[in-house]
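Table S5 (text form). Sequence records supplied for joint modeling of the three-component complex.
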Amino acid sequence: MARKVTARRVWVSTAAAWLFGFLIFLPILWMVLTSFKTELEAFSMPPKFLLFHWTTENYATVQERSDYFHHAVNSLLIAGGSTLIAMIIAIPAAWSMAFAPTRRTKDILLWMLSTKMMPSVGVLLPIYLIYRDFGLLDRRAGLVMILCLGNLPIVIWMLFTYFKEIPKDILEAARMDGATIGRELVYVLTPMAIPGLASTLLLNFILAWNEAFWTLNLSTSDAAPLTVFIASYSSPEGLFWAKLSAASTLAIAPIIILGWFTQRQLVRGLTFGAVK
Amino acid sequence: MATQQTQVLGRALLTPAVALLFIWMIVPLAMTIYFSTLHYSLLDSEAWSFVGLENFRYFLTDPAFLTALRNTLVLVGSVLAITILLGTPLALLLDQQVVGRSIIRLMVIAPFFVMPTVSALVWKNLLMHPVSGLFAWVATLVGTTPIDWFNDVPLFSVILIVAWQWLPFATLILLTALQSQDEEQKEAAEMDGASALSTFIYLTLPHLARPITVVILIETIFLLTVFAEIFVTTGGGPGLATTNIAFLIYTQALVQYDVGNASAGGLVAVVIANIVAFFLVRIVGRNLEA
Amino acid sequence: MGQITLQGVRKSFGPVNIIKDANLDIENGSFVVFVGPSGCGKTTLLRLIAGLEDVTGGQILIDGRNVVGVPPAKRGLSMVFQSYALYPHMSVRGNIAFGLKMAGLPRSDIDRKVEAAAATLNLTPYLDRKPRELSGGQRQRVAIGRAIVREPKAFLFDEPLSNLDAALRVQMRMEVAKLQKQLATTAIYVTHDQVEAMTMADKIVVLNAGNIEQYGSPLELYERPANLFVAGFIGSPKMNFVPGEVAGEPSVATLGVRPEHLKIGKEGEGWPGTVSVAEHLGSDTFLYVDAGKLGLLTARCIGEFNFKAGDRIWLSPDPARLHRFDKDGVVIRT
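The corresponding structure-token record, covering 900 residues in total, follows.
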């Protein structure tokens, strides 16, 4: 693996890579910096990079004025709830397809994938009308349901690819050792699949947290998660950049940190195993 | 593991997921198809009538549809071009020996985790604002007039935002693919006297063909229905300048409450997405055999 | 006790018949090896006995009881897998104990039995390690330990030594055979390696394309192969086959003679040929001889013979060790 590379080449690549990386990260960095400025300094021209009056008052104001935590709790409940329910439905399904495949397993997998490709906008109206008639508009339960169904194919697929990597022999060995299917799942499969289960959970939590089609269309206030809360800043009233930045930083910080842990699994989750 | 007991159990465990997904797919789709044949407005829900394919004729010949279709194609095409043309060199760069690679990786991947409403608003206000945005300041530094992004080049502005969100995805997939390239194969090429450039052209590019296809297909699926970024920045305007098909359908459905027309549009979107999905499913399916 | 009987066992996957009517009687305490080329159905047959696959037809009796439809766990057999199939998240102790734990044995019994099995296999110092911290040979021992600790009616081995290097393979081969004799438990052992089969087995089952070609002791198979397939499969280097007509026996379709039963004769005696390759091993000399119409013959001569490529030689087969086959490949007994 260790190929010989000249020191000069390493430095050139390093400089270029850092420059690229910095430019890509700049909008996020700038947002975080702005969140610590006063509204006046947030607008100042030329912009102030580090030498400004650092303040955390925006973070306090965001909570006071707009009930940030209400929406954060909504995000947590909706993303967490939909992911957990999806996992509960998906684990048995993925087990079945990975370890008791039939001739139709491949077709079922591909069909599940194709449901994920249906554009949400194509079914916006029926869903909206069903939700209206059943009183699910602006209800957390309604969002949990739709995000759960929307992400179910990805959850099943990810789990399926992880389960596939567990050698069948080991499960058969457990069976020879006298384990029932239930004990096989508890003592052998689950402990071996924990890394896969964790990254599936994490990635789908992230996807649900950031989902911004159904949340924008099906919730307004009571059930609104952070995506909708942030969107409410799009109609500007007075000086709001610093507060927008503070609210945004709060909304994305936990997810970026979680996301950094899942970056490897991200590829396989989003490409349905087509790239590993 | 093909004993009958496991088969039966397997079927039982698979059923809930299949049933749920089936209902989730079929019920709304059937309703959309049904609505698309009606003259039906939520504003006057008493008066509705069957109109056959009238809605499709109306939707497809509406000049707004053609504009939206063009905007959709431009948006998808430009974002694909930007993410792949920038993502490939970036992935190649990150595949080199670089000091602090893991930190750079983190910085590059970060935009993907930013929720669409946040990235759209941060770009619109903090970066692209014609007076106080960071870009305006850079423009004055180099001595040009700042661009009024969302008035002068509205669609391009949306494209920039969306491309920024998807660049990490393309880069990460291409990087993963590069790292799976056989090191010995490259060394064999080196022994054969291949230059770095010909190694790239004859070994690396063919190796990347598949992941690039996957990137194109998956991004297309998502980019066809870009919504939140338009919703919070331009609202489809000015005029129809940034209205794509998804946004047009949304307007007809939840702004004008025209059920029939919006459903016809929704079906058009489903058909377009299915064309792309067909190719993606085939690629993934081929991989399943292996 | 561990007497296993197969009666008309069949297995097909869709239209493909993997096992066609297998009948077999395995005595209690014997070491039986299933051998055959890859794809012959030997592993499938083992998995049918284990209960990991359902039979399409026929009966499998263990100690007289038909076990078709009985789940693997209830058949009282244990299995050593080719990949070892150790539980990666459990220690060696946990791996060996798992079956006993599933059977609901009291803690103290489990500990005692695990310690005893570990002592037998020289695994005591490694009991608290994870499988990934062990060498290939040690993992192999753990897999065997997991099998013996349950005191099963029979052991099933699925090519257990194929992942080991050559030297270790020879050593483990002897250890497994010794252990089986010591425990006096029935063992069924699948391998594609005929040397393993010859050295370990009390009885060998030769399988080809889903059929049992012959069932007998190693020497029986060597001395009295029932057909061309067994004759060609057992023995190394492979038996030479020459057309009967060319060899002067027109009543016989094929004449077979093992390389070690070809003697170097005097000039004009036996079959003439030209040495194309000579391999000098010191203890033996292998000669690959182009014998014209007779085809390419292999001769194995004990000791060192100073031949080189291009030398003319005469080979004479030991008349008592000739094998004659009819046109269907079945042996002609006289």
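Note: Chain A touches chain B through 105 residues (CB under 8 Å).
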